[in-house]
Design brief:
By secondary structure, this protein is of the alpha+beta class. The chain has one domain. The protein is built from 6 helices and 11 strands. The longest helix is centred in the N-terminal third of the chain and has 16 residues.
Length: about 240
């Protein structure tokens, strides 16, 4: 495949791809800077797993769902996919963007590679579930996973803090993973990335993409405390802090 092309059809395809990317921008992923931590509240239990590629495109890293080695142009270029499991969370941390807008209680994707996902799932079994739990996630250093690799329940008066998730509220519902992460067609990927596949992606392997939270994400309403009165585990039901 040449580095250049000619014809109106090529331009029309590129315009369609650009418009679809604008309309279907993926949700922000929860990420931490090295030696930091944040508390999130999980909106689902099981997560959603698939194979993914990480690709350096210009100055940023992008993630593309793998459709399998027989059809995926990234696989065919030598870019190795990795297993990813995603959850929906509310990120309770507070940050200010370049325009001075304060962000708080944002709904995000928590994307974990296999080792971190397994660590979380093992703890979930001991916690008697994940949905509604307030979990402190930590990243130890720059070599640690950007999505965090250490997970601890938030405690109050010796009890785990959990919140009532109202499934009737759209903001409390997990993301539509099948829609968000459905693999794109080979032609779409090639056009979107301006691909000369062999030269551009042979060296791109399992790198993590840095966060780019420059624009506003959706703010979320207050979560009601979970009523644990009939639960023998007696998780702490406190007034929601946000």
């Amino acid at each position: 495949m040449s580095w250049h092309s000619t014809g109106k059809g090529v331009v029309e395809q590129a315009a369609k791809v650009q418009e679809e990317q604008r309309k279907n921008k993926a949700p922000y992923r929860f990420k931490l800077i090295p030696n930091s931590s944040a508390t999130v509240i999980y909106l689902d239990e099981e997560g959603f797993s698939f194979q993914e590629h990480s690709v350096q495109h210009g100055q940023k890293w992008e993630q593309w769902t793998c459709s399998g080695p027989s059809t995926c142009p990234l696989c065919q270029s030598g870019n190795k996919p990795y297993h990813i499991t995603v959850f929906s969370v509310i990120d309770t941390s507070r940050w200010t963007d370049k325009r001075g807008q304060v962000h708080h209680n944002e709904k995000k994707i928590h994307a974990l590679k296999a080792d971190s996902a397994l660590a979380l799932m093992n703890k979930k079994e001991r916690w008697a579930g994940l949905k509604g739990k307030a979990v402190l996630i930590s990243r130890k250093g720059d070599k640690d996973a950007a999505a965090g690799s250490d997970f601890e329940l938030t405690m109050k008066d010796g009890r785990p803090v959990a919140y009532k998730i109202d499934s009737a509220k759209p903001e409390h519902q997990p993301f539509n993973y099948a829609g968000i992460f459905e693999p794109k067609s080979p032609d779409f990927i090639k056009t979107a990335l301006g691909m000369n596949i062999q030269s551009s992606f042979a060296a791109a392997t399992q790198h993590s993409a840095p966060a780019s939270n420059d624009s506003a994400a959706s703010a979320f309403e207050i979560l009601d405390p979970m009523d644990m009165s009939d639960d023998e585990t007696k998780e702490e039901s406190t007034d929601c802090p946000f």
